[in-house]
Write a structure and sequence with these properties.
The protein is α/β, with parallel strands linked by helices and 345 residues long. It folds into 3 domains: 9-89, Winged helix-like DNA-binding domain superfamily/Winged helix DNA-binding domain (Arc Repressor Mutant, subunit A, Orthogonal Bundle), CATH 1.10.10; 105-141, no CATH class; 153-344, 3-Layer(aba) Sandwich (Rossmann fold), CATH 3.40.50. 42% of the residues lie in helices and 17% in strands. It is built from 15 helices and 11 strands. The protein has helices spanning 9-15, 17-29, 32-36, 43-50, 54-66, 82-85, 96-102, 105-108, 114-120, 144-167, 185-193, 211-217, 253-266, 291-304, 311-320, and strands at 41-42, 70-74, 77-80, 175-179, 198-203, 224-228, 240-244, 273-281, 309-310, 323-329, 337-344. Strands 4, 5, 6, 7, 8, 9, 10 and 11 form an 8-stranded mixed sheet that branches. Strands 1-3-2 form a 3-stranded antiparallel sheet. Strand 7 (240-244), helix 13 (253-266) and strand 8 form a beta-alpha-beta unit. The longest helix has 24 residues, at 144-167. The mean pLDDT is 89. It holds the Pfam family Dimerisation. GO terms for molecular function: O-methyltransferase activity; protein dimerization activity.
Length: 345
């Protein structure tokens, strides 16, 4: 007998996964979780507080309770579950910025055009009614989208950075350079853990906008210089370079090779190191990383360009740039991230 989706719950979840996304999207847009806060509220009280239609809201709240975002304490009365607290901004372990990004039209609007991207090799966003809506963003301007991306990267890096700090010995170094480090949460974590280090944060002018605040909050602003520049042209001198979630932005190996060559040329000594923190795919799909990492890679086809690379591909690129590679698995890190330590030959 042929199995249908009702006999394969995981397949069913894949087929209707978009419904969960839009349910959470409406929840965030209506600020329902913020309105509930630490209280137990009735659907009626919440409807009045959020100017929503009580019967419809009740159905949404019950769906959220079934998904363990809320708990229904008694009929018609709800409070936040631990999962729901993760969707609040500023909560410990919060994924609010990731959720806000994922439910925004800029994230999902081009996915229905993926088939055309596969046929042509172009980005799916080029086939939407708003062509190039991602690439046409003026990143130098203060926009809701740019602010969302900045907050997302800060939030995500603050999860990864402590894992790197605990996994790698920065003791032998004196100057750490974070290339493409944005607002600086990665270098801030490294400097905070190693008082002997001084740092240089390099990114475009619009990229470092929040860096003074992030560095000050970490107590390292006096040991970290903020520079604006283009890492395709030149890099500051240093003896250890940080590069997190940068290389995947360029699908062309030639562009990645330029970044790696500049790192090699700028290293102050032959004992310098380049630390790449990237989502790295195994040579074959072997179950060693979560399936959604591969889906994230396809997401780059939809919107942002770029691509994830396999371990052999990274070895080849780094070898061509004059490095040997040691891969440090990061079991505690989410999303298939690895630490690649590159040493000059």
């Amino acid at each position: 007998m042929t199995r249908g989706p009702w006999q394969d719950p995981e397949l069913l979840r894949m087929l209707d996964g978009y419904t969960f996304t839009f349910l959470l999207g409406a929840t965030l847009k209506l600020r329902l979780l913020d309105a509930i806060g630490d209280s137990t509220v009735t659907a009626g009280d919440l409807a009045r507080a959020t100017s929503t239609h009580e019967p419809t809201l009740t159905r949404v709240l019950r769906a959220l309770a079934a998904l363990e975002v809320l708990t229904e304490e008694r009929p018609g009365a709800f409070r936040l579950a631990p999962r729901g607290r993760l969707l609040l901004p500023g909560a410990p372990g919060s994924v609010h910025e990731l959720a806000a990004y994922q439910v925004g039209e800029w994230a999902w609007g081009a996915w229905p055009k993926l088939d055309q991207a596969v046929r042509t090799g172009k980005q799916a966003s080029e086939f939407t009614s708003d062509p190039g809506f991602w690439s046409d963003i003026d990143w130098s301007q203060d926009s809701e989208f740019r602010e969302s991306i900045d907050r997302l990267m800060i939030e995500h890096t603050r999860v990864i950075a402590p894992i790197i700090v605990d996994s790698y010995d920065f003791g032998p170094f004196s100057t750490v350079v974070d290339i493409g480090g944005g607002s600086g949460p990665f270098i801030a974590a490294v400097l905070a853990a190693h008082p002997q280090l001084r740092g240089i944060l390099l990114d475009r002018e619009d990229g470092v906008k929040h860096a003074p605040r992030v560095l000050a909050e970490a107590g390292v602003a006096d040991r970290c210089e903020i520079r604006t520049g283009d890492f395709f042209e030149s890099l500051p001198r240093g003896d250890v370079y940080l590069c997190k979630s940068v290389l995947f932005n360029w699908p062309e190996d030639e562009r990645v090779a330029m970044i790696l060559a500049n790192c090699r040329e700028s290293m102050a000594t032959d004992k310098g190191r380049l630390l790449l923190v990237e989502q790295m795919l195994p040579a074959t799909v072997d179950g060693s990383i979560p399936p959604h990492v591969y889906v994230d890679d396809v997401g780059s086809v939809v919107n942002v360009g770029g691509r994830l690379r396999t371990e052999p591909e990274y070895h080849a690129l780094l070898s061509s740039a004059g490095f040997t590679v040691t891969v440090h698995p990061l079991p505690a890190a989410p999303d298939g991230f690895s630490l690649l330590e590159a040493a000059p030959v």
